[in-house]
Amino acid sequence: MYIVLMAGGAGTRFWPRSRQNMPKQLLKIFGDRTMLQQTYDRIKDITENDKILVITGENLKEEVLDQLPQLPKKNVITEPFGKNTAPCVALAATIINKRENKQNVAMAVLPADHLVGDVEGFQNILKTAEKYALDSGTLITLGIKPGYPETGYGYIQRNSKLVELEGQKIYPVKTFAEKPNLDTAQRFIESGDFFWNAGIFVWSTFSILAEFEQQLPELF
Questions:
Q1: Pair 140, 202: CB distance under 8 Å
Q2: What is the pLDDT of residue 56?
Q3: How many domains does the chain have?
Q4: Which of the ends of the chain has fewer CB neighbours closer than 10 A, N or C?
Q5: Which of the pair, 21 or 192, is modelled with greater confidence?
Q6: Angle at 70 between CA 69 and CA 74, to 5 degrees
Q7: Residue 194 within a domain
């Protein structure tokens, strides 16, 4: 499986510690490794270094290379300016598709600034998602069971369980909801049908490129 780490950013969300040339994923916030390094650490055992791509800004490239010297330089891919998630994913999928001579392969997309406590459990979820994505051709998004009515996150509403694979429950997505007000977030929690949107995705290159072609033809 290819794993794409999204490591751009303008350094605004953790200001004043973060800066334009040193956004939060490049800082040591939890422990003695930066958030980017911790993200790499939790996925390095389930794939190979030549299948780990980092998408970042031109101004951050050298720092990313310094922090992840294990990666081939060609795997740190820079954008001239940030255009958010969809172009980042489309670029990565296109590069992977070319490198694999247009063979269908699985790819996971992860933000580089998450904190994950249960690393083994997280790895198992990614491996199960990889298998299901290749077998079914669907796009998979990971949800986090919410602990409280947070208004700063997006939410994913699930439908009834589709399948259970290797101990992991897989649900069809019913709706996505952007950052709700407090009353709405409380209703989401009480329903038991909503998860926090982790912004972590798993799919095959063929599946995601086909969706870009259909849903975002100009970007494609």
A1: yes
A2: 94
A3: 1
A4: C
A5: 192
A6: 80
A7: no
The amino acid occupying position 189 is I
Domain harbouring 52, CATH code: 3.90.550.10
Buried b (16+ CB within 10 A) or exposed e, 110-130: bbbbbebeeeeebeebbbbbb
The domain in which residue 124 lies consists of 2-142+199-215
25 vs 219, which has greater pLDDT? 219
Residue 158 lies in a domain: no
Which pLDDT value is given to residue 97? Answer: 96
pTM, to two decimals? 0.92
**Distance between CA atoms of residues 177 and 171, nearest Å:** 16
What is residue 24's predicted lDDT score, i.e. its pLDDT? 77
Q: What is the DSSP letter of 174?
A: E
CB 130 within 8 A of CB 152: no
* Token couple for 65: 């290379």
Q: Does 178 reside within a domain?
A: no
> What's the rounded mean pLDDT across residues 31-36?
92
Dig out the tokens for 135 from the structure.
């077998």
Q: Is residue 54 part of a domain?
A: yes
